[in-house]
Specification:
Arc Repressor Mutant, subunit A, binds calcium ion, alpha/beta, Rossmann fold, 2 domains, 224 residues
């Protein structure tokens, strides 16, 4: 696994790079967007981590440039806390996910694992967990021999959980990825949807797939 980290702050860069290397990733660090673009054009990375604030071209501009150059590596944007526009801009520019600074290393590592996995799965039509299967092309879901009819929001939620599995997904991530920015995060809509998903997927099955991690979020897996 080879990762490109584009980060101008040397301390942050070496700290993150060291943590990823400890997890057996090969890491190249670029201090500018220009250098990042050069490296990404020359090498094939399993994931690219982009800091939004860079001298010269910004992380968002770099992201756009990479996608225009048809560089398909999954991209994680590192954004400033609370700047919703920055996150939306990043996703619009072609990033796959974002992480707000400051972040816990454990979370960064979980995101990178999920990102690398997603890269492998980008072209995959079918996502599976136990006997549950989601077909992204046909937009259909089945468990065992039975079809599971889902609404489009339920489908998007399940797809997100499957892409992240076996890692968990937080409530706010679900809101960001499944609902638009006008969503009122004070409502309990996420819980309502998780419950519906649970009824449709797990009811009548001995092995439960949808798990709640109290205070963390939700996870899909055959193990509780
Ligand atoms: Ca920076």
């Amino acid at each position: 696994m080879r990762i490109l980290l584009v980060e101008d702050e040397r301390k942050v860069g070496s700290f993150v790079a060291r943590a990823l290397r400890e997890n057996a990733y090969a890491v190249d660090v670029a201090p500018t967007g220009e250098e990042g673009f050069r490296l990404a054009s020359e090498n094939s990375y399993d994931a690219i981590l982009l800091d939004v604030r860079l001298p010269g071209i910004t992380g968002i501009e770099l992201c756009r440039k990479l996608r225009r150059a048809e560089i398909q590596s999954p991209i994680l944007m590192l954004t400033a806390r609370g700047l919703v526009e920055q996150r939306v801009e990043g996703l619009d520019a072609g990033a796959d996910d974002y992480l707000t600074k400051p972040f816990a290393l454990a979370e960064l590592q979980a995101r990178v694992r999920a990102l690398v996995r997603r890269g492998f799965r980008r072209g995959e039509a079918k996502l599976r967990c136990g006997d549950l299967e989601l077909d992204r092309h046909r937009r259909s879901v089945s468990r065992g021999a039975g079809k599971v009819p889902l609404t489009s929001k339920e489908f998007a939620l399940l797809e997100l959980l499957l892409l992240r599995a076996p890692e968990s997904v937080t409530r706010s991530e679900i809101i960001e990825h499944v609902w638009d920015s006008h969503f009122d995060s004070e409502t309990n809509l996420v819980d309502v949807y998780i419950n519906r998903l649970r009824q449709k997927i797990d009811q009548g099955h001995a092995v439960k797939l949808v798990h709640t991690l109290r205070g963390v979020g939700y996870r899909l897996g055959t193990q509780p």
